[in-house]
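Renewal narrative, Specific Aim 1. Our central claim is that a sequence can be written position by position from structural information alone. The example that follows is taken directly from our test logs and has not been curated for this report. It begins with the structure tokens describing the chain, in the order in which they were read.
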């Protein structure tokens, strides 16, 4: 049994439980690594503009290193170009603390819960899930609900 390791050099954030829950929910068995970065509103707006052509602030951006992996149980041999030692590098997630604070207030829950949700959302993107059409959106939201239930005991 492997694990998902989330590295965050910006600040101390509780990540182990989120990583373990996403990993188990997706049925993975290899070792994975993802990077978590925090940006201010100006920084994430610039990233959003430069990488997506959207000139506005956003809560989370995901930069997957692998394509076409949704629903697959990955092995190191499947992605030799993304191996970092014994880990498969999934990509990077960028969060905006300003949006986390605002959305936590808007949705009536803690900043920790909002951050947890956005990290989960970003990780699912790194594992190939998306919400560009209704079918994919429904699938991704269902997995997010499963993970949220495990993490928080919250049923929606």
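The sequence written for that structure reads:
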């Amino acid at each position: 049994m492997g694990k998902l390791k989330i590295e965050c050099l910006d600040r101390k954030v509780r990540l182990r439980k989120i990583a373990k829950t996403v990993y188990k929910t997706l049925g993975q068995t290899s070792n994975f690594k993802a990077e978590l970065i925090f940006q201010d509103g100006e920084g994430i707006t610039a990233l959003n503009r430069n990488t997506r052509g959207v000139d506005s602030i956003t809560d989370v951006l995901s930069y997957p290193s692998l394509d076409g992996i949704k629903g697959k149980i990955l092995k190191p041999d499947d992605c030799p170009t993304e191996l970092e030692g014994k880990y498969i590098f999934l990509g990077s997630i960028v969060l905006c603390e300003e949006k986390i604070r605002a959305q936590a207030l808007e949705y009536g829950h803690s900043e920790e819960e909002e951050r947890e949700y956005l990290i989960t959302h970003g990780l699912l993107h790194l594992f190939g899930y998306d919400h560009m059409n209704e079918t994919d959106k429904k699938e991704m939201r269902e997995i997010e609900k499963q993970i949220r239930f495990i993490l928080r005991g919250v049923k929606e």
